[in-house]
Amino acid sequence: MRIEFWLEFGSTYSYPAAMRIESLAAEKGVAIVWRAFLLGAIFNDQGWNDSPFNIYPSKGAYMWRDMERVCAAQGIPFQRPSVFPRNGLLASRIVCRYADAAWLPDFIRRVYQANFAEDRDISSREVILDCLGSAGESATNIIQEAESAENKLLLRKQTDIARQKGLFGAPSFLVGDELFWGNDRLEDAINWAATPAT
Amino acid sequence: MRIEFWLEFGSTYSYPAAMRIESLAAEKGVAIVWRAFLLGAIFNDQGWNDSPFNIYPSKGAYMWRDMERVCAAQGIPFQRPSVFPRNGLLASRIVCRYADAAWLPDFIRRVYQANFAEDRDISSREVILDCLGSAGESATNIIQEAESAENKLLLRKQTDIARQKGLFGAPSFLVGDELFWGNDRLEDAINWAATPAT
Question: What was the ipTM of the complex prediction?
Answer without folding.
Answer: 0.93
